[in-house]
Write a structure and sequence with these properties.
It contains 21 helices and 14 strands. By secondary structure, it is of the alpha/beta class. The strands form three sheets. Strands 7-8-12-11-10-9-13-14 form an eight-stranded mixed beta sheet. The longest helix has 20 residues.
Length: about 575
């Protein structure tokens, strides 16, 4: 029996009681013949104000131009984006994480309202991709994602630059290591054009792991943004969606407990962003799969960290591309039995089948170390608990920072005051910065703390200072940092009662983050805690704060898991 390809759109195009639907579709150029062809939603996160997204509409146009040649109707629409690098360190950053859910909602809304038969998402920055993946899980219609690709590195004085370089250069200027002119030259040369941030920051963490998850075509995560390969991928995506319709292969057939493990294994192996924890918890929920912080810790326990990639290492995604791309890395992980090769992908084949004939990895830059001699024998992402974080916290420890830190608390009620203290030279070796009331509800929006961590690194204090927060970190963050502390301060979590000068301990080997207080003292402080007034009392951030759940279950904004 022939598969019906226009399974959804036929509800309005082949229904005599829907004359208005057909009239409107004739207006956009469909004919009596093409009206019966499947309709493919092309969700582009393109907008001109950000290098990560500025070229995405052009890529979407390539997909749209290819679809009619194979009897598919392109239906391009846009969703929003937020540039973390532009908004970082300002109140604008509060909108970043909420944008993930707005992106998911908007894609689901257009696809559902318009009865599109399949979805191709063209995504460029780190909230775009998980947002699109969440929508794919909710809709469960044939779908795939095209990553917009990485930016090429900037160049200055023979050194490769990227956007993180500018944040750390600012810290170097504060420390008197470079002058204003040097900082300005770094700023002007860091970002040469279109594409997402080039290190293993959140964008490339999500793109490479989503490729391992199976929802994008091979090499999507490593083709540069401005390349002929990326344009060819867009044409291939059109043919891939036709094949998905023909075999009726849907996202929930691809994304399973096993493929989630594959994706998170890649996050650990490559030294990816802690934001992946939030995003995969939310993605799992959208696919009706169970995933917990403890599950993520188990994956970390069994995955060696093997990649010398920024921010903790040396290399960029453009270097990965030169050495064979993401599939060549996946092939190594598969051969080492770290991936499940039986998981399906959007090619209609399994991961093992996709990787069978690819060109092997060329380690000419020494980006990868052998699995048997890793940079760290377990994953860099560690889930911590303790009397500060009874529901969990997320640390990013690559091994270079050490595995134990104890020091005196320097407490800040917001990011700005912490940055001001760093600028004024008030942070010293042995300090543990505590930045609180920046969680999902308290921020609201759980902004990233890249500005203070980059200033610390730039000032040369990266090995001597720790930072804990109920906020989160940029994929560009490195150093001895612990985020996602749950419950957050705004909800009366123990981080709210830390006082200046308290002794704090971060013990990675034992997965602990603790304050040196007797339980009775801690409980007495909690009794005296008074909830603060919300910082935002109207608008989208207020609405987000009313609906968002804890970071420990992914900051989802629909109903939380049943306890």
């Amino acid at each position: 029996m022939k598969t019906v390809l226009n399974k959804f759109s036929r509800k309005i195009t082949e229904n005599d009681s829907q004359p208005g639907s057909k009239a409107m579709l004739h207006a956009v150029g469909l004919t009596e013949i093409t009206l019966k062809n499947p309709q493919i939603g092309i969700a582009s996160a393109g907008y001109s104000g950000n290098p990560c997204n500025m070229h995405l509409n052009d890529l979407a146009a390539i997909v749209a131009n290819e679809l009619p040649s194979i009897d598919l109707n392109p239906m391009t629409f846009n969703t929003i984006g937020v540039s973390d690098a532009i908004s970082m360190g300002t109140q604008g950053m509060n909108f970043s994480l909420p944008s993930r859910d707005l992106i998911a909602d908007s894609i689901e809304m257009v696809m559902g309202a318009q009865w599109y038969d399949g979805l191709i998402s063209i995504m460029g920055c780190d909230k775009n991709m998980p947002g699109a993946a969440i929508a794919m899980g909710r809709l469960n219609r044939p779908s795939l994602m095209v990553y917009g690709g990485s930016i090429h590195s900037g160049k200055y004085k023979g050194n490769k630059l990227n956007v993180l370089t500018t944040f750390e250069a600012y810290g170097s200027k504060l420390a008197g290591q470079i002058d204003e002119n040097e900082l300005n030259q770094i700023i002007k040369n860091a970002c040469p054009g279109a594409g997402a941030c080039g290190g293993m920051y959140t964008a490339n963490t999500m793109s490479s792991s989503l490729e391992a998850l199976g929802i994008s075509l091979p090499y999507s995560s490593s083709y540069p943004a401005i390349s002929q390969d990326k344009k060819e991928e867009c044409k291939q995506a059109a043919h891939a969606i036709k094949h998905l319709l023909e075999i009726d292969l849907k996202p929930r057939d691809i994304v399973t407990a096993a493929s989630l493990r594959n994706a998170l294994t890649v996050v650990m192996a490559l030294g990816g962003s802690t934001n992946a924890v939030l995003h995969y918890l939310a993605i799992a929920r959208a696919f009706d799969l169970k995933l917990s912080l403890d599950d993520i810790q188990q994956i970390s326990n069994h995955t060696p960290y093997i990649a010398d990639l920024k921010p903790s290492g040396k290399y960029l995604m453009e270097d990965v591309h030169e050495c064979g791309g993401t599939p060549a890395i996946l092939k190594i992980l598969l051969e080492e039995k770290l991936l499940d090769g039986d998981c399906l992908t959007v090619t209609g084949k399994t991961i093992a089948e996709n990787l069978e004939h690819i060109t092997p990895w060329d380690n000419k830059f020494n980006i990868l170390v052998p699995v048997q001699k890793p940079i760290k024998s377990t994953g860099h992402i560690q889930i911590l608990y303790g009397n500060i974080a009874p529901k969990g916290a997320v640390a990013k420890i690559t091994g270079k920072e050490g595995e134990f830190f104890t020091g005196k608390a320097k407490v800040f009620e917001n990011e700005d005051s912490a940055v001001e203290a760093i600028e004024e030279g008030k942070i010293h070796a042995g300090d543990v910065l505590v930045i609180r009331y920046v969680g999902p509800k308290g921020g609201p929006g759980m902004p990233e703390m890249l500005k203070p961590t980059a200033a610390i690194m730039g000032a040369g204090l990266g090995n001597d200072v720790a930072l804990i927060t109920d906020g989160r970190f940029s994929g560009g963050t490195h150093g001895f940092v612990v985020g996602h502390i749950s419950p957050e301060a705004f909800e009366g979590g123990p981080i709210a009662i830390i006082q200046q000068g308290d002794t704090l301990t971060i013990d990675i080997k034992n997965n602990l983050v603790e304050i040196n207080l007797e339980e009775a003292q801690l409980q007495e402080r909690l009794k005296q805690w008074i909830a603060p007034h919300p910082r935002i009392t109207s608008g989208v951030l207020y609405k987000y704060a009313q609906n968002v759940t804890s970071a420990s279950i992914g900051c989802v904004t629909d109903l939380p898991y049943e306890s």
